[in-house]
Design goal:
With 175 residues, the protein is mainly α. 62% of the residues lie in helices and 6% in strands. The model has no long low-confidence stretch (mean pLDDT 79).
């Protein structure tokens, strides 16, 4: 197996290498996006969207070097934000009986349900959350209809939207 070219003499996880690369990207950003005559180019912040493995070290570099706070905006990528949200929902519903119900009703196996709760199986986790919310909302609306039939007219637009959501969910689950 051939060794990759040694363009960077140090490890890519080295803080000095990360700082050098980010400063080079900052220069490239100003060259590509702004003309050299634009005085505002140096005042605009560069937005870096990175995975979680890079987020923490880059945020530490940004906070340690004072002039970078005004130049950089480091944020986690959308995928990692979704994973964190799904994990949070999974922790919230754990112990509620919902995961056990999904397994007992043969919607998901125990192994898949564990992955859903941990945010590891993204598509199924999203599908499970939508299914759970739809089922609970449907049950709640049926109970409301029994207890307050005179107020049902106020909720007809909501019921119509809920019906449309169910149809979209069915289409989503078929694909």
């Amino acid at each position: 197996m051939a060794n990759p070219p040694n363009w960077i003499p140090e490890s890519p996880t080295s803080r000095s290498v990360q700082l050098t690369v980010m400063k080079q990207l900052e220069k490239l950003n100003s060259i590509v996006l702004y003309s050299s005559l634009d005085e505002q180019a140096t005042k605009k912040r560069v937005v870096y969207t990175v995975d979680m493995a890079l987020y923490k070290p880059l945020k530490q570099i940004e906070m340690a070097v004072k002039d970078l706070k005004k130049k950089w905006l480091v944020k986690p990528g959308e995928l990692h934000i979704i994973i964190a949200q799904l994990r949070t929902i999974g922790e919230f519903i754990q112990g509620s009986g919902i995961p056990e119900l999904c397994v007992e009703c043969y919607l998901y196996s125990a192994a898949i349900m564990k992955q859903i709760l941990e945010g590891k199986h993204i598509r199924r986790a999203i599908e499970a959350q939508i299914t759970t919310v739809s089922a609970l909302t449907s049950l709640r609306l049926k109970e409301f209809e029994k207890e307050c039939p005179e107020q049902l007219d106020y909720f007809k637009p909501l019921l119509q939207l809920f019906g449309e959501l169910k149809e979209l969910l069915k289409q989503y689950m078929l694909h």
